[in-house]
């Protein structure tokens, strides 16, 4: 997944609000927002909107 972040800045991704998973359509794979720094703000915002609290610090 780190390789994905370092080499593919143009891939289209989607975030599922049901389980907060992130999917890359080009790679046909799930991405881990805990490993890919660019996805962390999106994940944090989605978590806040879903649970009305910040994500636990152990997730980030």
UniProtKB/TrEMBL annotation:
Residues 1-53 form the UBP-type domain. GO terms for molecular function: zinc ion binding. This is Putative histone deacetylase superfamily, Zinc finger, UBP-type, Zinc finger, RING/FYVE/PHD-type. Pfam families: zf-UBP. Keywords: Metal-binding, Zinc, Zinc-finger. Signal peptide: none annotated. The keyword Zinc applies. InterPro entries: Znf_RING/FYVE/PHD (IPR013083), Znf_UBP (IPR001607). PROSITE patterns: ZF_UBP.
């Amino acid at each position: 997944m780190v390789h994905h972040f370092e080499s593919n800045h143009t891939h289209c991704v989607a975030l599922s609000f049901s389980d907060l998973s992130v999917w890359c359509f080009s790679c046909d794979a799930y991405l881990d927002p805990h490993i890919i720094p660019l996805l962390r703000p999106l994940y944090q915002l989605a978590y806040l909107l879903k649970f009305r609290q910040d994500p636990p610090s152990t997730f980030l």
